[in-house]
Write a structure and sequence with these properties.
Strand content: under 5%
Order of helices and strands: HHHHHHH
Structural class: mainly alpha
Number of helices: 7
Distance between the termini: 44 Å
Length: 163
């Protein structure tokens, strides 16, 4: 009998919680162009594009080079943030996202160079890798990237809230 009462109590508490959330619904994120639902969908699509389904990049002269690695990410940002974000928000969110990708790329290349067949000879220091990436167009510079603190969700800190 005690288990049944406990289940009833829990179900009532869940019902009251859902009722409370329905009554006091908050549109957590918004921009001048889009509401919470549209932004949420765009951010999920951006995350999927960046992490799982990189869209093919438009061919450029640098596709074979190191800078070409960042083109699919830039395409994802443009495709999924363009409708809801103002230009300044897009620029800031893009820089933050690309800074994270740049940091990850430098760590990966550093790890690869230090694990090669002749690690002492082939190893490139992180500063050299970063300076090479400074030549990539539309990529945040090394100082910005170095001082950038990783964020959990791409583009979330440029959003407005209703609180």
């Amino acid at each position: 009998m005690g288990v049944v009462r406990l289940c009833l109590l829990i179900s009532r508490m869940l019902f009251l919680l859902l009722l409370f959330l329905a009554i006091f619904n908050s549109e957590a994120f918004n921009t001048a162009k889009c509401d919470h639902d549209a932004i949420t969908a765009d951010l999920v699509d951006l995350d999927n594009c960046l992490n799982y389904k990189n869209i093919p990049s438009k061919p450029t002269d640098d596709d074979a080079g190191l800078c070409g690695v960042f083109n699919p990410s830039q395409d994802c940002l443009t495709k999924h943030l363009g409708e809801c974000f103002e230009d300044n928000q897009m620029h800031k969110a893009g820089n933050e996202t690309l800074a994270q990708i740049r940091k990850d790329t430098i760590k990966y290349l550093f790890r690869v160079s230090s694990n090669g067949p002749n690690p002492k000879k082939d190893q490139i220091d992180a500063k050299s890798l970063s300076s090479i990436l400074n030549f990539c167009p539309n990529l945040p510079d090394g100082n910005y990237t170095e001082n950038f603190k990783r964020i959990q969700f791409n583009a979330i800190d440029v959003l407005e809230t209703d609180k």
